[in-house]
Amino acid sequence: MIFPFLWQIIMSLSTNSQVISVPPTFWPGQLQWHNFADVFTAMPFMSQFWVSVTITIIRTVGQLALCSLAGYAFARMRFPLKGLIFGIILAILMVPSQVYLIPQYQIIQGLGWLNTTAGIVAPGIFSAFGTFMMRQFFLGLPDELEEAARLDGCNPLQTFWKIMLPLAKPGLSALAIITVLWSWNDLLWPLVVSTYAESMPLSVGLATLQGQNSTNYPVLMAASLLASAPILILFLVMQRRVIDGIAFSGMK
User: Fold this and answer.
1) What's the whole-model pTM score?
2) Given this model, what pLDDT does residue 85 score?
3) What is the pLDDT of residues 54-87, one digit of tens each?
4) Pair 63, 130: CB distance under 8 Å
5) In 59-88, which positions are buried (b, 16+ CB within 10 angstroms) versus exposed (e)?
6) What's the average model confidence in pLDDT over 141-155?
7) 131-158: average pLDDT
8) Would you say 89 and 135 are in contact if contact means Cβ atoms under 8 Å apart?
């Protein structure tokens, strides 16, 4: 499983002729460390890095807020057409995201948000998967806690904020990590709405390094390593919380 990652490191330290040679060269000999420096001249790496950071933070905060509220409402509250509305949200999971591409583009274009961070962020700030995940988590919490809060005079919003939300930290952590991974690697939608190099996230910037006739693969691999390093470190640090949160929400 680790071989593709090691192969990527070897390619990033090789020359382009060594990468495309047949049979392949498994050790580059003299390491080409300058490939990592060349990344910053081949693409506006830092500006695209901050675009990726910004959209990832906004999407993660948005999904934690909206999906936890929606999940709590579907798990704990009674309101008309609750089952029908939740069924419609679940149906969204069964439709390929490419179906929404043209309508979403027309909406973003109408708002004048093309080539802006808002245009990239808007469609991913709420998710049906996150709502389903948080609903499953809140269903697993005991009813006695909610009843005790109600006896103490808490209204539904106070019960959610003071009692249920602190207990939902494992689920929130899992949803946050999943959203961060998805947002950082999201390619199709940012590729459609961002055409200026400075407004692109890293996922799109890496795609632009692939030339029509030739590609500098060592620089591309070096850029991929630099782009994946922050998210890889975050996942290694938080992987236990992800596994615990998904297991506790009953989605394993």
Assistant:
1) 0.85
2) 92
3) 999 999 999 999 999 999 999 988 889 989 999 9
4) yes
5) bbebbbebbbbbbbbbbbeeeeeeeeebee
6) 85
7) 87
8) no
3-state secondary structure string across the chain: CCHHHHHHHHHHCCCHHHHCCCCCCCCCCCCCCHHHHHHHHHCCHHHHHHHHHHHHHHHHHHHHHHHHHHHHHHHHCCCCCHHHHHHHHHHHHCCCHHHHHHHHHHHHHHHCCCCCHHHHHHHHCCCHHHHHHHHHHHHCCCHHHHHHHHHCCCCHHHHHHHHHHHHCHHHHHHHHHHHHHHHHHCCHHHHHHCCCHHHCCHHHHHHHCCCCCCCCHHHHHHHHHHHHHHHHHHHHHHHHHHHHHHHHCCCC
* pLDDT exceeds cutoff 60 at 136: yes
Q: Is the pLDDT of residue 15 over 60?
A: yes
Q: Take residue 176 and report the two structure tokens written for it.
A: 């946050």
Residue 38 pLDDT exceeds 70: yes
Spatial distance between the Cα atoms of 245 and 126, rounded to a whole number of angstroms: 19
Gap between the Cα atoms of 184 and 167, Å rounded: 27
Q: What is the mean pLDDT of residues 12-32?
A: 83
Contact criterion met (CB below 8 Å) for 239 and 231? no
